[in-house]
């Protein structure tokens, strides 16, 4: 049997340039292979595998429920009216940006409106973040938290400035991203009001019997009671033999640089998606370009409910 396209050497070396040289027919075939790895179209409405294909248009009709669907239905690209090649280009541009890509840049690169790019970028973030769903970590796990969002700008005049260390002078939008990172393995992230609030999440997602590494913050006390745990006092050293949280720190370094260098401001409301996106990038950082494209493409083509569904029409719902 011929090797599946997504596993072939050709797929491993896919670049943005190669995507842009594809014909619409080639791009359509590629999109279809990413969406239905088995080859058979699966109905978006009822999940039945098997559909009639129209010869004149790229539309399918389910053999079970008889409803129509297209290759983009239910994916992050449904409801757009772009050429197939542009969808693949969006995935390639997105995965190539190691510190993330802003909606403004994506809108310039794809030649679409800012609002279109904003929603598309968030849907792609959701898709990448979904790789963490249902993942349980085991072995040596580094756990750490860092605060993002809710920046309060100091007043111009010294006499008007407030001490921003006090809760009363904060705006309440600052949140803690917590990462659990398996040494030599994957990173899983979530967002909480404080590090302290993440205890149950950590206990639910790390296998019993694992070894957990943290810093000395009191927020991890319960976690340390539950697992075999080591902590490093960062005031004395960043590592002491095997005791460190350096891999968790590298994750935060990527997220922080993305915040400062690419997005300039990350809203607390969307922080979990940015955190999940960066975890995906960290987890796939050693993969070659084409493999990253294929992995991200498969996630983007998987039908899922999106928090951004109907985002552009939200003013109509509010009216
Ligand atoms: Zn159906």
Secondary-structure blueprint of this entry?
Elements: H1 9-12, H2 16-20, H3 24-35, E1 51-53, E2 60-62, E3 68-69, H4 84-96, H5 103-110, H6 114-129, E4 140-148, E5 175-182, E6 187-192, H7 199-205, E7 211-215, H8 221-226, E8 228-232, E9 239-240, E10 243-244, H9 246-263, H10 271-283, H11 289-301, H12 314-318
Parallel strand pairs: 4-7, 7-8
Antiparallel strand pairs: 1-2, 2-3, 4-5, 5-6, 9-10
Helix pairs in contact: 3-4, 4-11, 5-6, 6-10
- C-alpha Rg (nearest Å): 22 Å
Spans where pLDDT lies below 50 across 5 or more residues: none
The tally of domains stands at 2
CATH topology of the largest domain: Nucleotidyltransferase, domain 5
Distinct compounds present: zinc ion
**Helical element count?**
12
Query: Strands of the biggest beta sheet: in what spatial order?
Result: 6-5-4-7-8
Kindly state the number of beta strands.
10
What would CATH call the architecture of the largest domain? 2-Layer Sandwich
Round the mean pLDDT to the nearest integer and report it.
Answer: 89
Pattern of helices and strands: HHHEEEHHHEEEHEHEEEHHHH
| Separation of the first and last Cα atoms | 57 Å
User: What structural class do helix, strand and pairing data support?
Assistant: alpha+beta
Strand content: 5-15%
Helix content: 25-40%
Under CATH at level 1, the class of the largest domain stands as Alpha Beta
Sheet having the most strands: 5 strands, mixed
Global outline? globular
